[in-house]
Amino acid sequence: MTKIRSRNSRRQFLSYGALAAASASNPLQYVAATSPPATLKVAGVVSTYFRNSHADVIIGKILEGWRQTGGDGPALEVASLYVDQISDGDLSRSMAEKYDVPIFDNIADTLTLGTDKVQIDGVLCIGEHGNYEIVPETGQVMYPRRRFFDEVTATLEQHRTRVPIFNDKHLAYAWRDAAHMARTAKRLKLPFLAGSSLPVAWRSPATVLPIGTKLTQACGIGYGGLESYGFHALETMQSIVERRRGGESGVQQIRTLQGDRIWEGLEAGLWDSELALATLKNMEIDLTLEQLKSQLTDGAAVYVIDYQDGLRAACCMFNGVTSKFGCGVRTAKSPSPKAWWFKLEHKFPYGHFEHLLRAIEKTFVTRRPAYPVERTLLTTGILDRCMHSLANDGAIYATPELRIRYKPSEWPFANQDSRHAFPT
Protein backbone atom coordinates (compact mmCIF):
# COMPACT_ATOMS: atom_id res chain seq x y z
CA MET A 1 0.00 0.00 0.00
CA THR A 2 1.32 3.42 -0.91
CA LYS A 3 2.05 5.58 2.06
CA ILE A 4 -0.02 8.78 2.23
CA ARG A 5 2.34 11.55 3.18
CA SER A 6 1.51 14.47 5.44
CA ARG A 7 3.49 17.29 7.02
CA ASN A 8 4.35 14.97 9.90
CA SER A 9 6.01 12.43 7.59
CA ARG A 10 8.29 14.44 5.34
CA ARG A 11 10.60 12.99 2.76
CA GLN A 12 13.32 15.11 1.24
CA PHE A 13 13.35 15.48 -2.52
CA LEU A 14 15.79 17.43 -4.67
CA SER A 15 14.64 19.77 -7.43
CA TYR A 16 16.78 20.69 -10.38
CA GLY A 17 18.63 23.94 -10.72
CA ALA A 18 18.53 27.05 -8.60
CA LEU A 19 15.77 29.59 -8.35
CA ALA A 20 16.24 32.47 -10.75
CA ALA A 21 16.16 35.93 -9.23
CA ALA A 22 12.75 37.59 -9.19
CA SER A 23 12.27 40.61 -11.40
CA ALA A 24 11.81 43.97 -9.77
CA SER A 25 8.36 44.29 -11.33
CA ASN A 26 7.10 41.01 -9.94
CA PRO A 27 8.19 39.49 -6.62
CA LEU A 28 7.41 35.93 -7.68
CA GLN A 29 10.27 33.70 -8.68
CA TYR A 30 10.50 31.14 -11.45
CA VAL A 31 11.16 27.54 -10.55
CA ALA A 32 13.27 26.95 -13.63
CA ALA A 33 16.88 26.44 -14.48
CA THR A 34 18.44 28.53 -17.22
CA SER A 35 18.28 25.43 -19.41
CA PRO A 36 15.39 23.12 -18.45
CA PRO A 37 16.31 19.50 -17.74
CA ALA A 38 15.35 16.72 -20.11
CA THR A 39 12.43 15.79 -17.86
CA LEU A 40 10.21 18.20 -15.95
CA LYS A 41 8.62 17.24 -12.64
CA VAL A 42 4.85 17.66 -12.42
CA ALA A 43 2.33 17.36 -9.62
CA GLY A 44 -1.04 15.74 -10.24
CA VAL A 45 -3.96 17.23 -8.32
CA VAL A 46 -6.96 15.08 -9.23
CA SER A 47 -10.52 14.50 -8.08
CA THR A 48 -10.30 10.72 -8.49
CA TYR A 49 -8.22 8.17 -10.41
CA PHE A 50 -9.66 5.00 -11.91
CA ARG A 51 -9.30 3.19 -15.25
CA ASN A 52 -10.34 5.44 -18.17
CA SER A 53 -10.83 8.48 -15.94
CA HIS A 54 -9.29 11.74 -17.09
CA ALA A 55 -6.58 11.28 -14.47
CA ASP A 56 -5.77 7.88 -15.99
CA VAL A 57 -5.67 8.96 -19.63
CA ILE A 58 -3.55 12.04 -18.87
CA ILE A 59 -1.30 11.06 -15.97
CA GLY A 60 -1.15 7.47 -17.19
CA LYS A 61 0.49 8.67 -20.41
CA ILE A 62 3.23 10.37 -18.40
CA LEU A 63 3.81 7.25 -16.34
CA GLU A 64 3.51 4.65 -19.12
CA GLY A 65 3.97 6.41 -22.46
CA TRP A 66 1.65 7.80 -25.12
CA ARG A 67 -0.13 4.47 -25.64
CA GLN A 68 0.18 3.52 -21.94
CA THR A 69 2.13 0.41 -22.84
CA GLY A 70 5.58 1.44 -21.66
CA GLY A 71 6.73 3.12 -24.88
CA ASP A 72 7.75 6.70 -25.60
CA GLY A 73 5.96 9.49 -23.82
CA PRO A 74 6.29 13.15 -22.86
CA ALA A 75 9.38 14.64 -21.26
CA LEU A 76 7.52 14.85 -17.95
CA GLU A 77 7.81 12.96 -14.67
CA VAL A 78 5.02 12.57 -12.13
CA ALA A 79 6.65 13.75 -8.92
CA SER A 80 3.62 13.66 -6.64
CA LEU A 81 -0.13 13.12 -6.44
CA TYR A 82 -3.07 14.46 -4.50
CA VAL A 83 -6.29 12.44 -4.91
CA ASP A 84 -9.43 14.09 -3.54
CA GLN A 85 -11.67 11.01 -3.55
CA ILE A 86 -10.79 7.31 -3.57
CA SER A 87 -13.29 5.54 -5.80
CA ASP A 88 -14.13 1.92 -6.44
CA GLY A 89 -11.46 0.59 -8.77
CA ASP A 90 -8.94 3.19 -7.59
CA LEU A 91 -5.71 3.14 -9.58
CA SER A 92 -3.82 5.87 -7.77
CA ARG A 93 -2.39 3.64 -5.03
CA SER A 94 -1.21 0.84 -7.31
CA MET A 95 0.24 3.24 -9.90
CA ALA A 96 1.98 5.28 -7.20
CA GLU A 97 3.46 2.10 -5.72
CA LYS A 98 4.59 0.85 -9.13
CA TYR A 99 6.27 4.10 -10.14
CA ASP A 100 7.42 5.30 -6.70
CA VAL A 101 5.22 8.40 -6.73
CA PRO A 102 4.36 9.83 -3.30
CA ILE A 103 0.71 10.60 -2.59
CA PHE A 104 0.12 13.49 -0.20
CA ASP A 105 -2.98 14.27 1.83
CA ASN A 106 -2.99 17.97 0.99
CA ILE A 107 -2.27 20.08 -2.07
CA ALA A 108 0.45 22.25 -0.49
CA ASP A 109 2.67 19.25 0.25
CA THR A 110 1.96 17.88 -3.21
CA LEU A 111 3.75 20.93 -4.62
CA THR A 112 6.54 21.11 -2.04
CA LEU A 113 6.97 17.33 -1.61
CA GLY A 114 6.81 17.97 2.12
CA THR A 115 9.74 20.40 2.11
CA ASP A 116 10.03 24.14 2.58
CA LYS A 117 9.93 25.09 -1.11
CA VAL A 118 8.10 24.22 -4.31
CA GLN A 119 9.78 21.22 -5.92
CA ILE A 120 7.83 20.78 -9.14
CA ASP A 121 7.84 22.42 -12.57
CA GLY A 122 4.14 22.28 -13.40
CA VAL A 123 0.75 21.32 -11.98
CA LEU A 124 -1.97 19.18 -13.57
CA CYS A 125 -5.36 20.04 -12.06
CA ILE A 126 -7.81 17.34 -13.16
CA GLY A 127 -11.17 17.89 -11.48
CA GLU A 128 -13.28 15.47 -13.52
CA HIS A 129 -15.25 12.46 -12.22
CA GLY A 130 -16.04 11.74 -8.61
CA ASN A 131 -18.98 12.11 -6.25
CA TYR A 132 -19.66 15.85 -5.95
CA GLU A 133 -22.75 17.92 -5.24
CA ILE A 134 -24.96 19.22 -8.03
CA VAL A 135 -26.42 22.74 -8.35
CA PRO A 136 -30.13 22.02 -7.74
CA GLU A 137 -31.47 24.59 -10.20
CA THR A 138 -29.23 23.82 -13.19
CA GLY A 139 -27.85 20.32 -12.66
CA GLN A 140 -24.24 21.51 -12.93
CA VAL A 141 -21.70 19.32 -11.16
CA MET A 142 -19.74 21.24 -8.55
CA TYR A 143 -16.32 19.82 -9.33
CA PRO A 144 -13.61 21.31 -7.08
CA ARG A 145 -11.65 23.01 -9.86
CA ARG A 146 -11.58 26.42 -8.21
CA ARG A 147 -10.59 24.86 -4.88
CA PHE A 148 -7.75 22.99 -6.55
CA PHE A 149 -6.62 26.15 -8.34
CA ASP A 150 -6.87 28.33 -5.22
CA GLU A 151 -4.83 25.92 -3.09
CA VAL A 152 -2.21 25.56 -5.81
CA THR A 153 -1.85 29.31 -6.29
CA ALA A 154 -1.86 29.98 -2.55
CA THR A 155 1.08 27.60 -2.20
CA LEU A 156 2.91 29.26 -5.08
CA GLU A 157 2.33 32.70 -3.57
CA GLN A 158 3.46 31.54 -0.15
CA HIS A 159 6.73 30.33 -1.60
CA ARG A 160 7.12 33.29 -3.98
CA THR A 161 7.20 30.92 -6.93
CA ARG A 162 5.29 30.44 -10.14
CA VAL A 163 5.00 27.40 -12.38
CA PRO A 164 2.63 26.57 -15.26
CA ILE A 165 -0.81 25.16 -14.45
CA PHE A 166 -3.12 23.05 -16.59
CA ASN A 167 -6.84 22.86 -15.77
CA ASP A 168 -8.72 20.00 -17.40
CA LYS A 169 -12.01 20.88 -19.22
CA HIS A 170 -13.96 24.07 -18.38
CA LEU A 171 -12.47 26.23 -15.69
CA ALA A 172 -15.36 25.81 -13.25
CA TYR A 173 -19.08 25.09 -13.13
CA ALA A 174 -19.84 28.73 -12.24
CA TRP A 175 -18.79 31.79 -14.22
CA ARG A 176 -17.76 33.70 -11.09
CA ASP A 177 -15.24 30.99 -10.23
CA ALA A 178 -13.87 30.84 -13.77
CA ALA A 179 -13.45 34.62 -13.90
CA HIS A 180 -11.66 34.54 -10.54
CA MET A 181 -9.27 31.85 -11.77
CA ALA A 182 -8.43 33.74 -14.97
CA ARG A 183 -7.89 37.00 -13.05
CA THR A 184 -5.66 35.27 -10.50
CA ALA A 185 -3.52 33.61 -13.15
CA LYS A 186 -3.11 36.96 -14.90
CA ARG A 187 -2.27 38.78 -11.66
CA LEU A 188 0.35 36.21 -10.73
CA LYS A 189 1.63 35.97 -14.30
CA LEU A 190 1.16 32.21 -14.27
CA PRO A 191 1.30 30.31 -17.56
CA PHE A 192 -2.24 28.90 -17.60
CA LEU A 193 -3.59 26.32 -20.05
CA ALA A 194 -7.04 24.76 -19.92
CA GLY A 195 -9.71 23.04 -21.92
CA SER A 196 -10.93 20.05 -23.86
CA SER A 197 -9.04 17.43 -25.85
CA LEU A 198 -11.42 17.95 -28.80
CA PRO A 199 -9.70 20.95 -30.45
CA VAL A 200 -6.44 18.98 -30.73
CA ALA A 201 -8.02 15.68 -31.81
CA TRP A 202 -7.99 14.33 -35.37
CA ARG A 203 -10.07 16.18 -37.94
CA SER A 204 -11.73 15.08 -41.14
CA PRO A 205 -10.93 16.70 -43.43
CA ALA A 206 -7.52 17.62 -42.00
CA THR A 207 -7.81 21.23 -43.16
CA VAL A 208 -7.34 24.52 -41.35
CA LEU A 209 -9.72 27.47 -41.54
CA PRO A 210 -7.43 30.37 -42.48
CA ILE A 211 -7.15 33.05 -39.82
CA GLY A 212 -9.11 36.10 -40.96
CA THR A 213 -11.88 34.22 -42.78
CA LYS A 214 -15.17 36.12 -42.74
CA LEU A 215 -17.85 33.81 -41.32
CA THR A 216 -21.59 34.29 -41.74
CA GLN A 217 -22.88 31.30 -39.75
CA ALA A 218 -21.54 28.51 -37.57
CA CYS A 219 -22.88 25.24 -36.23
CA GLY A 220 -21.41 22.87 -33.67
CA ILE A 221 -22.59 19.28 -33.30
CA GLY A 222 -22.31 17.26 -30.12
CA TYR A 223 -24.07 14.74 -27.92
CA GLY A 224 -24.23 13.51 -24.35
CA GLY A 225 -24.65 15.38 -21.09
CA LEU A 226 -25.65 18.96 -21.75
CA GLU A 227 -23.02 20.27 -19.36
CA SER A 228 -20.30 17.61 -19.40
CA TYR A 229 -20.25 17.01 -23.16
CA GLY A 230 -21.82 20.35 -24.02
CA PHE A 231 -18.53 21.90 -23.01
CA HIS A 232 -16.67 19.71 -25.51
CA ALA A 233 -19.09 20.67 -28.28
CA LEU A 234 -18.77 24.37 -27.47
CA GLU A 235 -14.99 24.32 -27.31
CA THR A 236 -14.83 22.34 -30.56
CA MET A 237 -16.90 25.02 -32.27
CA GLN A 238 -14.99 27.84 -30.59
CA SER A 239 -11.66 26.47 -31.87
CA ILE A 240 -12.99 27.10 -35.39
CA VAL A 241 -14.93 30.36 -35.06
CA GLU A 242 -12.15 32.12 -33.12
CA ARG A 243 -10.21 32.19 -36.39
CA ARG A 244 -12.74 34.49 -38.09
CA ARG A 245 -11.97 37.96 -39.33
CA GLY A 246 -11.14 40.32 -36.47
CA GLY A 247 -10.40 37.55 -33.98
CA GLU A 248 -12.57 36.80 -30.99
CA SER A 249 -14.49 39.71 -29.44
CA GLY A 250 -16.89 37.82 -27.18
CA VAL A 251 -20.58 37.01 -26.89
CA GLN A 252 -23.59 39.33 -26.71
CA GLN A 253 -26.38 36.95 -25.70
CA ILE A 254 -27.25 33.28 -25.28
CA ARG A 255 -30.36 31.12 -25.15
CA THR A 256 -31.04 27.37 -24.99
CA LEU A 257 -33.75 25.68 -27.05
CA GLN A 258 -35.21 22.34 -26.08
CA GLY A 259 -38.25 20.29 -27.09
CA ASP A 260 -40.68 22.09 -29.39
CA ARG A 261 -38.63 25.28 -29.07
CA ILE A 262 -35.89 23.68 -31.18
CA TRP A 263 -38.27 23.62 -34.14
CA GLU A 264 -39.83 26.98 -33.32
CA GLY A 265 -36.28 28.35 -33.28
CA LEU A 266 -35.63 26.81 -36.69
CA GLU A 267 -38.71 28.57 -38.11
CA ALA A 268 -37.52 31.82 -36.52
CA GLY A 269 -34.08 31.49 -38.13
CA LEU A 270 -32.20 30.89 -34.89
CA TRP A 271 -30.31 27.94 -36.36
CA ASP A 272 -29.57 26.66 -39.85
CA SER A 273 -30.82 23.12 -40.50
CA GLU A 274 -29.01 22.88 -43.85
CA LEU A 275 -25.70 23.68 -42.18
CA ALA A 276 -26.43 21.22 -39.36
CA LEU A 277 -27.33 18.43 -41.81
CA ALA A 278 -24.21 19.13 -43.91
CA THR A 279 -22.07 18.92 -40.79
CA LEU A 280 -23.69 15.62 -39.86
CA LYS A 281 -23.16 14.30 -43.38
CA ASN A 282 -19.45 15.07 -43.12
CA MET A 283 -19.49 12.82 -40.03
CA GLU A 284 -21.05 10.01 -42.11
CA ILE A 285 -24.58 10.64 -40.79
CA ASP A 286 -26.80 11.36 -43.78
CA LEU A 287 -30.30 12.44 -42.69
CA THR A 288 -33.23 14.44 -43.97
CA LEU A 289 -34.72 17.13 -41.77
CA GLU A 290 -37.70 14.89 -41.06
CA GLN A 291 -35.43 12.03 -40.02
CA LEU A 292 -33.49 14.39 -37.77
CA LYS A 293 -36.70 15.57 -36.14
CA SER A 294 -37.96 12.04 -35.55
CA GLN A 295 -34.70 10.73 -34.09
CA LEU A 296 -33.84 13.47 -31.60
CA THR A 297 -34.54 12.49 -28.00
CA ASP A 298 -35.97 14.63 -25.21
CA GLY A 299 -32.39 15.23 -24.06
CA ALA A 300 -31.47 17.14 -27.22
CA ALA A 301 -30.88 20.89 -27.07
CA VAL A 302 -29.60 23.75 -29.22
CA TYR A 303 -27.44 26.50 -27.72
CA VAL A 304 -27.94 29.72 -29.71
CA ILE A 305 -24.99 32.09 -29.35
CA ASP A 306 -24.94 35.64 -30.69
CA TYR A 307 -21.40 37.00 -30.84
CA GLN A 308 -20.48 40.64 -30.39
CA ASP A 309 -19.42 41.00 -34.03
CA GLY A 310 -22.79 39.77 -35.37
CA LEU A 311 -21.94 36.12 -35.97
CA ARG A 312 -24.67 33.72 -34.89
CA ALA A 313 -23.70 30.18 -33.96
CA ALA A 314 -25.82 27.22 -32.90
CA CYS A 315 -24.29 24.40 -30.88
CA CYS A 316 -26.57 21.43 -31.47
CA MET A 317 -26.59 18.71 -28.84
CA PHE A 318 -28.22 16.13 -31.09
CA ASN A 319 -28.84 13.30 -28.63
CA GLY A 320 -30.45 10.34 -30.34
CA VAL A 321 -28.80 11.13 -33.68
CA THR A 322 -25.06 11.05 -33.13
CA SER A 323 -22.22 10.11 -30.81
CA LYS A 324 -19.74 12.33 -32.64
CA PHE A 325 -18.53 15.93 -32.55
CA GLY A 326 -18.25 18.30 -35.48
CA CYS A 327 -18.40 21.88 -36.65
CA GLY A 328 -19.64 23.55 -39.81
CA VAL A 329 -19.47 27.12 -41.05
CA ARG A 330 -20.56 29.30 -43.92
CA THR A 331 -18.12 31.91 -45.19
CA ALA A 332 -18.70 35.19 -46.99
CA LYS A 333 -16.86 33.84 -50.05
CA SER A 334 -18.98 30.72 -50.46
CA PRO A 335 -22.50 29.82 -49.36
CA SER A 336 -21.59 26.12 -49.45
CA PRO A 337 -21.02 24.69 -45.96
CA LYS A 338 -17.50 23.88 -44.83
CA ALA A 339 -17.44 21.17 -42.16
CA TRP A 340 -15.10 19.16 -39.94
CA TRP A 341 -15.52 15.94 -38.00
CA PHE A 342 -13.48 15.93 -34.77
CA LYS A 343 -12.55 12.27 -34.46
CA LEU A 344 -11.88 10.53 -31.15
CA GLU A 345 -10.43 7.18 -30.21
CA HIS A 346 -13.41 5.71 -28.36
CA LYS A 347 -11.43 3.06 -26.53
CA PHE A 348 -8.41 2.78 -24.26
CA PRO A 349 -5.99 4.53 -24.26
CA TYR A 350 -8.18 7.32 -25.74
CA GLY A 351 -5.40 8.67 -27.92
CA HIS A 352 -6.89 12.15 -28.35
CA PHE A 353 -5.67 12.85 -24.83
CA GLU A 354 -2.14 12.29 -26.13
CA HIS A 355 -2.49 15.43 -28.18
CA LEU A 356 -3.88 17.39 -25.25
CA LEU A 357 -0.86 16.21 -23.25
CA ARG A 358 1.46 17.33 -26.05
CA ALA A 359 0.03 20.84 -25.64
CA ILE A 360 0.48 20.58 -21.87
CA GLU A 361 4.08 19.43 -22.30
CA LYS A 362 4.82 22.35 -24.62
CA THR A 363 3.28 24.77 -22.14
CA PHE A 364 5.32 23.39 -19.25
CA VAL A 365 8.58 23.31 -21.20
CA THR A 366 8.28 26.79 -22.76
CA ARG A 367 6.30 28.35 -19.91
CA ARG A 368 3.95 29.78 -22.53
CA PRO A 369 0.41 28.44 -23.08
CA ALA A 370 0.12 26.47 -26.33
CA TYR A 371 -3.16 28.31 -26.95
CA PRO A 372 -4.98 31.08 -25.08
CA VAL A 373 -6.84 30.26 -21.88
CA GLU A 374 -9.34 32.91 -22.94
CA ARG A 375 -10.89 30.31 -25.27
CA THR A 376 -11.77 28.15 -22.29
CA LEU A 377 -12.78 31.15 -20.18
CA LEU A 378 -15.25 32.15 -22.90
CA THR A 379 -16.66 28.66 -23.42
CA THR A 380 -16.98 28.24 -19.65
CA GLY A 381 -19.07 31.41 -19.51
CA ILE A 382 -21.16 30.36 -22.50
CA LEU A 383 -21.85 26.97 -20.95
CA ASP A 384 -22.84 28.44 -17.59
CA ARG A 385 -25.34 30.79 -19.23
CA CYS A 386 -26.67 27.98 -21.46
CA MET A 387 -27.35 25.83 -18.41
CA HIS A 388 -29.15 28.71 -16.71
CA SER A 389 -31.22 29.37 -19.83
CA LEU A 390 -32.14 25.70 -19.97
CA ALA A 391 -33.25 25.81 -16.33
CA ASN A 392 -35.28 28.96 -16.95
CA ASP A 393 -37.45 27.85 -19.85
CA GLY A 394 -35.14 29.07 -22.62
CA ALA A 395 -34.72 32.61 -21.28
CA ILE A 396 -32.39 34.89 -23.22
CA TYR A 397 -29.31 35.88 -21.22
CA ALA A 398 -27.45 39.06 -22.10
CA THR A 399 -23.73 38.45 -21.48
CA PRO A 400 -21.79 41.72 -21.16
CA GLU A 401 -19.30 39.83 -18.97
CA LEU A 402 -18.38 37.67 -21.97
CA ARG A 403 -16.85 40.48 -24.01
CA ILE A 404 -13.63 38.52 -24.08
CA ARG A 405 -11.10 39.38 -26.76
CA TYR A 406 -8.24 37.19 -27.87
CA LYS A 407 -6.36 35.99 -30.91
CA PRO A 408 -6.13 32.31 -31.86
CA SER A 409 -2.87 30.40 -31.84
CA GLU A 410 -1.47 28.16 -34.54
CA TRP A 411 -1.08 25.13 -32.26
CA PRO A 412 -1.74 22.11 -34.52
CA PHE A 413 -4.39 19.45 -34.20
CA ALA A 414 -3.39 15.77 -34.24
CA ASN A 415 -3.30 15.08 -37.98
CA GLN A 416 -2.58 18.58 -39.21
CA ASP A 417 0.06 18.40 -41.96
CA SER A 418 -0.01 14.58 -41.53
CA ARG A 419 1.62 14.78 -38.09
CA HIS A 420 -0.12 11.88 -36.35
CA ALA A 421 -2.37 9.38 -38.07
CA PHE A 422 -5.52 8.10 -36.44
CA PRO A 423 -4.62 4.93 -34.46
CA THR A 424 -5.47 1.64 -36.12
Please give a structural write-up.
This protein has about 425 residues and is an alpha/beta fold. The strands form three sheets. It has an eight-stranded mixed sheet with strand order 10-16-15-11-14-13-12-17, sandwiched between helices. The radius of gyration is 22 Å and the shape is globular. The longest helix is centred in the C-terminal third of the chain and has 19 residues, at about 375-390. It has helices spanning about 55-65, 90-100, 105-110, 145-160, 175-185, 230-240, 260-265, 275-280, 290-295, 350-365, 375-390, and strands spanning about 5, 30, 40-45, 75-85, 105, 120-125, 160, 165-170, 190-195, 200-205, 215-220, 250-255, 300-305, 310-315, 325-330, 340-345, 395-400. It folds into two domains: about 5-195, NAD(P)-binding Rossmann-like Domain (Rossmann fold, 3-Layer(aba) Sandwich), CATH 3.40.50; about 200-345 and about 380-400, Dihydrodipicolinate Reductase, domain 2.
